Amino acid sequence: MKIKLGLLYGGKSAEHKVSLQTARAVIKALDLSKFEIHPIYISENGEWKRGNQLEGPVEEVETLKLQETGNVVSPVALNHEIFPTASNEQTNDAIDVIFPLLHGPNGEDGTVQGLLELMNIPYVGNGVLASAAGMDKVIMKNIFAQAGIAQARYVSYIRSEWEKAKEDIYEKVEADLGYPCFVKPANLGSSVGISKCKDRASLEAAFYEAFTYDRKVIVEEGIVGREIEIGVLGNDEPTCSVVGEIKPKKDFYDYKAKYEDGDTGLIIPADITEDEYNKIKEVAIKSFKALDCSGLVRADFFLTENGEVIMNEVNTMPGFTPFSMFPLLWQEAGVSYPELIEKLVSLAIERHQEKQKIKHTF
Hints:
The protein is α+β, with helices and mostly antiparallel strands. Helix content is about 35%, strand content about 25%. The protein has 3 domains: about 5-125, Rossmann fold; about 155-220, 2-Layer Sandwich (Dna Ligase, domain 1); about 225-355, ATP-grasp fold, B domain (D-amino Acid Aminotransferase, Chain A, domain 1, 2-Layer Sandwich). It has 12 helices and 14 strands. The two termini are about 35 Å apart.
């Protein structure tokens, strides 16, 4: 029996375009002898559409918006309109597993995961807690600090306190962190809204930019070190991929370098010692467990000249575009792209079955 796989993509987020690229790449990689592909698109306005079963790869990203073929559905009636598996009667439209290919808020942050939990639908990737904590860089770093994981110094602010005391905040950042520093929206990824600041003028501009994407920003000290990434895969017993290194040709690895230029240097495997790899692997798994992750994460680090491993962040839904590090790391580790997707679906089913053992009555 083929697995009826619902691909949920798009989303009401600044990372909408990234999600579409991810969806196209995943569709191309899926083995149609093992999976039925059912597209579910969320527009930038939050409208949900379900398309017809796909019979092959999608060449144009615009096709994924289902403008001609999609039926508008309501996410508040998923069991009736999209997911008949939640009802007592199985139908030909029943979806076995959902693969959320959503990046950023309203998708990667635990909101959709919570919806699927309420519907008791198996889904790929991290659960509500890990997704929410992993999306909010401040909460994530607070948890890592509690777990004793080394990371860059940081401060955070919400918009209202910044509006009341801008000069005081700028002075505190300069005193506590200095330059260079990075200003980021707390709840966003793909380097959207991130600025590297070298002086007061760029710092002020960075705050304005970051606050257009979120009500909370985080400011981190600049770390001198190599940008190292590793993939983590699993549920209760996670395993790690090889390590990769990013060598951006620009000042830092921004959105354009990630998704548009395609000319950023990705070195896989990275040239590191066995001891450095073991340190990175140990911290990656520790971070995975600290957030109670499941399925997958990409853990990002700085590796200093003296071999110190400093956690940057984890991404609970790393992209699957042709330029993405996560699938490339696993490919180097001997897990092909199609095999990786199949493994993720298997992990989703495994986690869902485990949750069915929980008693809900007393």
